[in-house]
Structures are given as C-alpha cells and as structure tokens.
C-alpha cells in the first residue's frame, strides 16, 4: 500500500504542475502525463540533493515537494488556473481514478520480471538511500542510469524491498499517451475523426501487442521508460510547430530531459532530435533560450559532476566519452545561442538535418573501416534480433515493409524530425557499439533493447505517411510547412 500512496502522490504532483498550462494544453493530456512529471521531479530533486551533499531522506524529499506545491499554488492563485470546467474535472477524475486502479492492481499482483541488470539497478537504488553518491554508486551510475536507480531508492523510505508497481504504471501511461498524441497528430493530417481514431487505435494495438513491449511492461529496466519519454518529446515538438503552440515545447523539453536521464548514452540521441527542432526555425528565439538552455545546462552539470567523481570510469562511460558528451552539449548550446544570426538561419539551419546524417554516415563508415568484423557482427546481430531472436515477433518485419511502401507516398508536415531522427538513431546505435562489446543475438542485448526507444516513433511515422496517402483524406497542413520538403 505504501507504493500505491507514493506513486499516486507523484502522479498528483505531476497533474498539479500540468494544470499550470491548462489554458494552452488539453486537460486530457495533463491528466495522462501527471506520472511523467511527478517521477521526473523526484529524480531531479534527488540528483540535486545528493550531488550537493544535501540530506536525502524522506523528510528532505517531503520538504522539497511541499516547496514545489507551495510554488505551484502561488502561480495557480495568480493566474486563476485552479478554475476547471465540469468537462475538465470529469476527464481528470476519470483518468486519475483509472490510474489509481491500475496502481492498486499492480501492487496486488506482482508480475515483475528481472534480469541481472534489473537486480543491479534495484540494489544501486537501495544503496543510494544509505550511501548517497559514493564512489561505488558513481561507478554504477556511469554504467547505467540515474532515473531508475533514484526511483528505486524510494523503496528504502517505504520499507519495501523494491519498487515493483512503477513499471506497469509506466506501461499504462504509455498506452494512453501513444493513443492520445497519435490521435492529436493524425487529426492534423485528416479531418475524419472516426477514421483517425480507428487508425490510431490499430497502430497502438500493433505496438502494445508486440511481445517484447508486453514483457517490458513488467520487466524492471529503463528501456520502456526511455521509449515513452522520447516518444512524448518528439510528438510534442511536432505539435508545437504544427499548432504554433509554444507550450507543447515546454512539455517536450521536460520529456527529453526524462529520456536523457534514463540511460548514460541517451543525451547523444536526444541532441539529434533537439538539433532537428532547432533546424526547423519555428520556435521563437526567446523560447529556445528559456526551454533549451536549462536542459543543456542541467545535463552539462550532471556529466561534469560524473567526470569529476568517476576516476578511470567504466567500459560504458569513461572520462573521454564523458568529455565527448559534454562537448556535444556545449556545441548544441552554442547553436541555440547563435541560431538567430541571419547567416545561420539562412545557410546552416535548413541544411542541418541532411548534414547530420551525412556526418553520421561518414563516421559510421570510418568505424567500420577501423573494426570491420566488430561492426559487421553487430549489424548482423541487430538484424537477427529484429526479425527473430529479439522477441519482437513480426513487428519489425511489418514495419519495414510498410515503411518502404509509405516512403513513396506524399510527404507529411515537418517530416524531417521523423525521417532524419529515425535514420540518425539507427546510425548511432551502430556507431556506439564501436566503443563496447559487439551486439549479440539475444533479447537482452543492449542494441536490441534500445530498439524499444525508436519503435513507437517509427510506428507513428508510418501511420502519418499512411493517412497522408489516403485518396479521400482532407489534409490540414500549415501554410508555412507546405513549402518545406524532405
């Protein structure tokens, strides 16, 4: 019962935060994403407390959330955002009640699946509650992530062995989020609501009926969490541009932060999508500074802290790789700062997506030249995992066929963020294996598990291309997007 109260409290905090934006974003979205923001607040608050040697105890974390709630309350009072319509109250209470029911069922029936990685992350989380960021803990965080370990550390405060209810609740949230954002995005392309709902639901069934996704709904690990945050970020970035609604951008950057904290190498992948957002040039310069610079600064400080504490590092993250990540963060930060210069806007930004892919392909070719057998074995293992050994069933085979067919169809609005993002993601998966052991044919292979991150975005992209190709569909494209082609 302690876990139910704890995780539902995080959900409520997330909803209270989301309601600050209720005049600009749908109440349904706010109710669905409450758990994303609540858990993110817990993780970020814990990281700040531990990195600055502040107490990391139940009392200190309760005080932290009380301060947050007071701040949210003051803003609500000033902006009168507490006032909700009957329709908004109904949606929020309905989703919150369903969330609580799923949470209760998850606490009543523990179907958790674990591996050696899961056990290490659970133990690391428990050790954090006792040791803080000791040298041994920093070593473990350099191998895996901060997000899941910080969340698991709460098990000590709750008097439980580990947090086993979070994974099913993340999966439930992801189901709602995929279908809702998918519906919102497809609605921007076709006007037939019934068809939009049907196609979105079918896409959701394809995704969430995949065996490996079902398995990860109970498997205590960071990949499903990463996939959810990345999907939310990319979808919200797209909606921010198409709807010309800057508030989607705020939620998108929070989602990108959640993704970036879920795995040690995640910021490199995240920066690809962030660069694509910058290249579009649709976000006001002030909003770019307000939303992107804090994200880059927080990650820069975190990886600088790891660099100062890691010593020789680990096989996953050593000082050289950490400096490379910090350098990439600085480079994107400088791009944000100078992105308003005329020659940058006219010459660099429009070509940035193609330029990134070309650079990644050249880098990949160089790495193949350096370790041909290493990369060849990894490519072969990844393909075998996608088609047979990775517990994906026929999902990747279906996606590959549909993608090949849909690429010949008409372009969707702002296709760059999907097309170049997906291509860059696969290039990076193959590139990072140069610095570690080759991928192997098994569901637990790191490369196979990382495919989870990009699959939801890939399915959404195929869905968008499909509906754009429908002969009697009514396209609702933004005028400023009609002139931008892939």
Keywords summarizing the entry:
486 residues, mainly alpha, 23 helices
Topology:
Elements: H1 2-18, H2 27-32, H3 34-51, H4 58-79, H5 86-108, H6 116-131, H7 135-143, H8 147-158, H9 166-187, H10 193-208, H11 211-216, H12 223-242, H13 246-262, H14 266-280, H15 285-309, H16 319-338, H17 342-348, H18 352-370, H19 372-389, H20 395-406, H21 416-432, H22 446-468, H23 479-482
Structure description:
This protein is an all-alpha fold and 486 residues long. The protein has a domain at 1-109. It is 75% helix and 0% strand. The chain has 23 helices and no strands. It has helices spanning 2-18, 27-32, 34-51, 58-79, 86-108, 116-131, 135-143, 147-158, 166-187, 193-208, 211-216, 223-242, 246-262, 266-280, 285-309, 319-338, 342-348, 352-370, 372-389, 395-406, 416-432, 446-468, 479-482.
What proportion strand? under 5%
What is the helix content?
over 70%
The averaged pLDDT comes out at 92
Quaternary state of this entry equals single chain
Q: For the record, give the distance between the C-alpha atoms at the N and C termini, rounded to a whole number.
A: 51 Å
Q: Care to count the β-strands?
A: 0
User: Number of helical runs?
Assistant: 23
Low-confidence runs (pLDDT<50, min 5 residues)? 473-486
SSE sequence, one letter per element:
HHHHHHHHHHHHHHHHHHHHHHH
* Gross morphology: globular
By secondary-structure content and strand pairing, the structural class works out as mainly alpha
Largest sheet report? none
Radius of gyration: 22 Å
Give a nutshell description of this structure.
With 486 residues, the protein is an all-alpha fold. The chain has helices at 2-18, 27-32, 34-51, 58-79, 86-108, 116-131, 135-143, 147-158, 166-187, 193-208, 211-216, 223-242, 246-262, 266-280, 285-309, 319-338, 342-348, 352-370, 372-389, 395-406, 416-432, 446-468, 479-482.
């Amino acid at each position: 019962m302690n876990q139910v109260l704890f995780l539902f409290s995080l959900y409520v905090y997330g909803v209270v935060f989301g309601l600050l934006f209720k005049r600009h974003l749908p109440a349904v979205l706010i109710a669905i994403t409450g758990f994303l923001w609540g858990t993110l607040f817990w993780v970020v608050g814990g990281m700040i407390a531990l990195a600055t040697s502040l107490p990391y105890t139940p009392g200190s974390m309760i005080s932290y959330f009380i301060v947050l709630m007071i701040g949210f309350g003051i803003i609500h009072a000033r902006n009168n955002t507490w006032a909700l319509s009957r329709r908004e109250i109904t949606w929020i209470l309905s989703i919150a009640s369903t969330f609580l029911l799923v949470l209760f069922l998850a606490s009543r029936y523990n179907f958790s699946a674990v591996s050696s990685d899961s056990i290490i992350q659970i133990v690391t989380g428990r050790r954090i509650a006792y040791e803080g960021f000791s040298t041994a803990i920093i070593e473990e965080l350099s191998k895996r992530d901060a997000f899941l370990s910080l969340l698991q550390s709460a098990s000590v405060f709750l008097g439980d062995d580990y947090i086993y209810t979070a994974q099913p609740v993340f999966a439930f949230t992801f189901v709602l989020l995929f279908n809702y954002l998918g519906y919102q995005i497809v609605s921007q392309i076709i006007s037939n609501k019934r068809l939009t709902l049907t196609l979105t639901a079918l896409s959701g069934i394809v995704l969430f009926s995949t065996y490996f996704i079902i398995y990860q709904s109970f498997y205590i690990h960071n990949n499903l969490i990463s996939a959810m945050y990345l999907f939310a970020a990319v979808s919200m970035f797209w909606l921010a541009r198409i709807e010309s609604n800057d508030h989607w951008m705020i939620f998108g950057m929070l989602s990108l932060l959640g993704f970036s904290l879920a795995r040690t190498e995640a910021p490199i992948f995240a920066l690809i999508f962030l660069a694509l957002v910058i290249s579009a040039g649709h976000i006001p310069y002030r909003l770019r500074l307000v939303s992107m610079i804090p994200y880059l600064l927080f990650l820069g400080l975190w990886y600088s802290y790891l660099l100062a504490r890691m010593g020789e590092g680990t096989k996953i993250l050593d000082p050289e790789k950490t400096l490379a990540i910090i350098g990439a963060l600085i480079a994107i930060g400088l791009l944000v700062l100078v992105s308003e210069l005329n020659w940058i806007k006219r010459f660099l930004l429009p070509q940035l997506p193609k330029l990134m892919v070309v650079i990644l392909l050249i880098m990949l070719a160089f790495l193949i030249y350096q370790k041909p057998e290493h990369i060849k074995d990894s490519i072969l293992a990844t393909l075998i995992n996608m088609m047979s050994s990775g517990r994906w069933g026929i999902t990747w085979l279906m996606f590959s066929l549909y993608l090949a067919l849909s690429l010949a169809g008409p372009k969707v609005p702002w296709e760059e963020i999907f097309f170049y993002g997906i291509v860059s993601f696969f290039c990076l998966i193959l590139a990072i294996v140069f610095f570690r052991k080759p991928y192997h044919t098994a569901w637990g292979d790191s490369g196979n598990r990382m495919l989870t991150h990009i699959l939801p975005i890939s399915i959404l992209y195929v869905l968008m291309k499909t509906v754009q190709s429908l002969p009697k569909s009514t396209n609702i494209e933004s005028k400023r997007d009609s002139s931008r082609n892939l």
